[in-house]
Amino acid sequence: MKPSPLPMLNGIKPSYLNLPHDKQYIGKPLLCYLRARFPFIAENIWRARLNSGMVVNQRGEPLHENVLYQAGEKIFYYREISRDAEPRIPFDEKILWLDNDLIVVDKPHFLPVTPSGRFLHETLLTRLRLHPDLQYLNTADITPLHRLDKDTAGVMLFSHNPATRAAYHTLFPSHAIQKTYHALAPTRLDLAYPLIVRTRLVPSEPFFLMREAAGEANAETRVRLLEPRGEASLYELQPVTGKKHQLRVQMMGLGMPLLNDALYPVVQPENGDDYSKPLKLLAKRLAFIDPLTGAARAFESGQDL
């Protein structure tokens, strides 16, 4: 892929959009397509962005509000957040390891990994790209190797070496990473631990939720009771697969929804994050055989529940 004609700005890479071959927009201003493609962004905002010189084509030529739609072109622009201000999330990440290929980070609760929706600058990726200890790297190459929900804390792997990224990325879909989570959930002493949970997870409604359904299992987790603590206990969860919200949904299915979960079993009203009630889910440990050296490697979060 050719490099972007726009540079990284304050830790944010430009987004891009391929203009499809759609006859209804031929001969019309590009603005018409952008209004239809992003109906949640007001027309006056797109006009201002187009006239700012910060929206360009693949040749780096600035576009304006009256430029015509060109099917097949690629345009580049900087994302903006969907709110007037973006307050700082008052928790800090910690770099656990740095070598020629990987950055291993202990992520706090509430911090998204990548920009989306209400979050642009206050993301783990943007913070790493601006981190003073990492400025000797090509920070534009810093990329997460896997997902971790905004509400979940713990260990994350990032690549900063494009030459070796694929080797490490492949560890996740091939289930070659042993992932260990800690969770706080209601106590159940009537189950025989360790417990192997195999269920089928499918998208639900609203669109951001998942649910268990009948059919062949596509999600597997090992559940172990670590420490009874009265009404709630500490559990060790080891997912074999990596489905969206897998641990949250499977624990709910066992009658043990995670403490302080704003999505399961009932979606809570969106009133902003309550920093006093973090989701009690922690990516405690990642272990794997290094695909480059063959050495056993393990990284552990310094946080506890």
Automatic annotation (TrEMBL):
Residues 101-251 form the Pseudouridine synthase RsuA/RluA-like domain. InterPro entries: PsdUridine_synth_cat_dom_sf, PsdUridine_synth_RluA-like_CS, PsdUridine_synth_RsuA/RluA, RluA_PseudoU_synthase. Keywords: Isomerase. PROSITE patterns: PSI_RLU. One of its GO terms (molecular function) is catalytic activity, acting on RNA. The keyword Isomerase applies. PANTHER family: MITOCHONDRIAL RNA PSEUDOURIDINE SYNTHASE, PSEUDOURIDINE SYNTHASE RSUA_RLUA-LIKE DOMAIN-CONTAINING PROTEIN. It is an enzyme of class 5 (isomerase). Pfam families: PseudoU_synth_2. One of its GO terms (biological process) is enzyme-directed rRNA pseudouridine synthesis. Its EC number is 5.4.99.-. This is RNA pseudouridine synthase.
